[in-house]
Amino acid sequence: MTVPLSDRYHDRLPLSDLTPLVSLGEGSTPLLAAPRLSKRLGLDIHLKCEGANPTGSFKDRGMTIAIAKALEDGADSVVCASTGNTAASAAAYAARAGLSAVVLQPAGAVASGKLAQARALGARLLEVRGSFDDALDSARELAGQGTHVLVNSLNPHRLEGQKTAAFEIAEELGGPPDVLALPYGGGGNACAYAKGFAEWGAGEPRLFAVQSGNRAQTVASAIRIRQPVHAAGVAEAIERSKGSVVTVSDDDILIAWRSLAREEGVFCEPASAAALAGVEASGLAPGTRVVCVITGHGLKDPETAARESPAATAVFADLTSIAEAAA
């Protein structure tokens, strides 16, 4: 039986005996060694596969706490702005808690897998004619009226839940890695990991927050955010850890995406591959122990997978044709 994240780390989370349990079995995600990537790059690479969370992304770690606290405080409804993963997670955990969820999404900028999740889970989806930043401003305004609780990462309970991934990494490795690399969209997850490692108390890894050079139009839709709301917190964490903001191209991200799939069998959404792209661009010393955070499952963005992968080959249903095509 899966132990809920809120039970595993109850004393490290803002929970009381009155906080309800709102869990879908989040956390305890795999930390996979990446032997082929490690050999090719001369590093000791591990992959924290957050796509194994219930809705397929890291957002569930924070959402279980944010929704539980909203329920504890008597909320009826929650609201978020989202490029997709927050929407799916908010919809799922709101449904679990018996709350309604409103999602504001930038029109035409969200992958279909994420839209399908949020719709199926009963969220009220509203397409904002504008960017993610516009949607977030609107979500904050609605929450300010007191009718809905904001469950974006500006909600501090979200980061409290997300920091538990750092605990899991430290537990499994026996301490922090030398480097932690992860995608940089709004920056909340980077701040959460920094907070988690700091609270663990065994030292902090160098933090590599990896962004696309084309934030507004990047193929990595999950980090298609022009203005990171946690930019100040990320800058502080990077300075403290002697890390770096690493900027890569969309081509770099797609090359890393293919490498993860074809060298290690890990199918992720493009934004997740930014972590590996950043590591490859950073010139780390041989043997450096690196954890790349794989933030979301590949089925979150089926259009990119179909567009960037070879099509099936049509064959006749006979052994000769099949053998020739398979050679």
Describe this structure in words.
The chain is of the alpha/beta class and 327 residues long. It has two domains: 5-53 and 157-307, Rossmann fold, CATH 3.40.50; 59-154, Rossmann fold (3-Layer(aba) Sandwich). It contains 14 helices and ten strands. The strands form two sheets. A six-stranded mixed beta sheet has the order 1-2-10-7-8-9, sandwiched between helices. A four-stranded parallel beta sheet has the order 5-4-3-6, sandwiched between helices. β3, α4 and β4 (100-106) form a beta-alpha-beta unit. 53% of the residues are buried. The mean pLDDT is 95.
Offer a concise description of the structure.
With 327 residues, this protein is an alpha/beta fold. The protein is built from 14 helices and ten strands. The mean pLDDT is 95.
Q: What's the order of the H and E elements? A: HEHEHEHEHEHEHHEHEHEHHEHH
What oligomeric state do the depicted chains represent?
single chain
Just name the CATH architecture of the largest domain.
3-Layer(aba) Sandwich
The name CATH uses for the topology of the largest domain is: Rossmann fold
Number of strand elements = 10
Task: Outline the low-pLDDT stretches.
Answer: none
Q: How would you write the strand order of the largest sheet? A: 1-2-10-7-8-9
Strand content: 15-25%
**Could you tell me the radius of gyration in angstroms?**
20 Å
Describe the global form. Answer: globular
User: How many separate domains make up the residues?
Assistant: 2
Give the helix tally. Answer: 14
The largest sheet, given as strand count, sense and whether it forms a barrel, is: 6 strands, mixed
The helicity comes to 40-55%
Determine and state the CATH class of the largest domain.
Alpha Beta
Distance between the termini: 45 Å
Structural class: alpha/beta
- Average pLDDT score: 95
